């Protein structure tokens, strides 16, 4: 095992570019499981669970709430749940520590803002499915994304009986219509200028890495993931000096055609990252 860790560290140290790909499994290693009906969900969302019958944060994100007061009660609670700790988790701190001096880029489907919180700059980050702190017009009347921190924390604090006060409910500054959190829960999700800019930055990063030593570091991405995993495998396949490193607990999947260029660690991501930083 130790040998494998050194191999990973050497690849990271020698890399000209590192692309980090992260999904739900990384959040789970931080203790946040958006698909689970666990004690943390019951403790923080128990009133919603009882009232509407949904059994996880992700089900709540897709729930057709009967009113805006109730919808915003949920989404502001979720915002608060992801971000009430101002300090990043040890997992995210270790990840940042591991790559901060390198040339890196992050692509993630996580919506919890934890990369930003740990110090990863926005220009090195592509949040494919959005971020729970941002708002958009629900009608998509224009493409602007708005920072929602202030209103979301206010709504999280002042909800009663599962509702936020009417006067706190955000309205689109352009059309006056309803708004929603900028996360991909339906077809309204805007892929406007800021989304396109991040997407382009990701494309540019991998293009510039062509022919160089590229590390694709995948954290907690499921075997069937098409958004993040499929492009990583394609890049590993076509790039001569690419290395695919995957950390995943119990769901390690490396296809034969890239096996020679791959390192897989089947273990608790939190512990593996801690170990890597200590050995650095
Ligand atoms: Zn609008």
TrEMBL record:
Entry-linked PROSITE patterns: SIRTUIN
Annotated InterPro entries: DHS-like_NAD/FAD-binding_dom, NAD-dep_sirtuin_deacylases, Sirtuin, Ssirtuin_cat_dom
Entries under Gene3D superfamilies matching the protein: TPP-binding domain
Deacetylase sirtuin-type domain span: 1-280
Entry superkingdom: Bacteria
EC number: 2.3.1.286
Membrane-spanning segments: none
One Pfam family hit: SIR2
Binding of Zn(2+), residues: 137, 141, 172, 175
Keyword Zinc listed: yes
This protein's record includes keyword RNA-binding: no
Keywords: Metal-binding, NAD, Transferase, Zinc
Record's protein name: protein acetyllysine N-acetyltransferase
């Amino acid at each position: 095992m130790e040998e494998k860790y050194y191999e990973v560290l050497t690849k990271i140290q020698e890399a000209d570019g590192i692309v980090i790909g992260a999904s739900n499994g990384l959040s789970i290693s931080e203790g946040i499981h958006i698909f689970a009906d666990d004690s943390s969900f019951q403790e923080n969302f128990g009133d919603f669970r009882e009232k509407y019958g949904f059994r996880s944060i992700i089900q709540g994100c897709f729930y057709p709430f009967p009113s805006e007061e109730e919808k915003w009660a949920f989404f502001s609670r979720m915002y608060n749940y992801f971000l009430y700790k101002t300090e990043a988790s040890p997992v995210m701190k270790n990840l940042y520590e591991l790559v901060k001096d390198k040339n890196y880029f992050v692509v993630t489907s996580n919506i919890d803002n934890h990369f930003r919180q740990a110090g990863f700059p926005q220009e090195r980050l592509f949040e494919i499915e959005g971020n729970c702190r941002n708002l958009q017009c629900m009608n998509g009347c224009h493409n602007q994304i708005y920072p929602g921190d202030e209103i979301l924390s206010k709504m999280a604090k002042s909800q009663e009986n599962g509702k936020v006060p009417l006067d706190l409910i955000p309205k689109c500054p352009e059309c006056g219509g309803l708004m929603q959190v900028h996360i991909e829960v339906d077809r309204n999700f805007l892929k406007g200028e800021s989304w396109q800019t991040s997407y382009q930055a990701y494309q540019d990063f991998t293009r510039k890495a062509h022919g160089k030593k590229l590390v694709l570091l995948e954290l907690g991405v499921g075997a069937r993931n098409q958004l993040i995993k499929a492009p990583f495998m394609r890049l590993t396949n076509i790039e001569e000096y690419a290395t695919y490193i995957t950390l995943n607990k119990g769901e390690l999947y490396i296809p034969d055609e890239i096996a020679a260029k791959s390192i897989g660690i089947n273990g608790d991501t939190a512990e593996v990252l801690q170990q890597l930083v200590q050995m650095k």
